[in-house]
Design goal:
mainly alpha; 2 domains; 74% helix; Arc Repressor Mutant, subunit A; 7 helices; single chain; Rna Polymerase Sigma Factor, Chain: A
Length: 155
């Protein structure tokens, strides 16, 4: 197990950094993921590769970490006069998107993060989530439809 962990630690850290946008938070997520993997090693059934199994656990740890964060305080968001208006508006839009994505069902949220945010292919995402590319694409379509609906409704 130690060799498996060391072989994938750097790529798991990079994966979690892309999800969390913070190397510090990513390291915490990787540590949590490796702890979960160690505890669940006896449950590994060998259906997929151990690499995809570790990625799925790391993705879940990162998403759980996001879920545990407080919602951004949009009421008190006051633009910095030195910051261009369009940059402030983009950040505000991104905050709304992240807030809406947090309320997606877990599988749709995972797929949305992997495909639309990080940019993994359907095959890569399917391998990480131990499912099929068709299932990933379907979940991405559902996630995008829900996000369009929520963001269009002013949530």
């Amino acid at each position: 197990m130690t060799a498996l962990i060391e072989r994938h630690r750097d790529e798991l850290r990079a994966h979690c950094t892309r999800i969390l946008r913070s190397p510090h938070d990513a390291e915490d997520a990787v540590q949590e993921a490796l702890l979960r993997a160690w505890r669940a090693l006896h449950q590994y059934e060998g259906r997929g590769s151990r690499r995809s199994w570790l990625y799925r656990i790391a993705t879940n740890a990162a998403v759980d970490q996001i879920r545990g964060r407080r919602e951004p305080a949009t009421e008190s968001a006051v633009p910095d006069p030195a910051q261009p208006v369009d940059q402030f508006e983009r950040r505000e839009s991104m905050d709304r998107l992240v807030s809406a994505a947090r309320r997606l069902p877990s599988r749709e949220r995972e797929v949305f993060v992997l495909r639309a945010v990080i940019g993994h292919s359907a095959r890569e995402s399917a391998d990480m989530l131990d499912t099929t590319p068709a299932s990933v694409n379907s979940a991405l379509q559902r996630a995008r439809a829900k996000l369009r609906s929520r963001l269009g409704a002013g949530e």
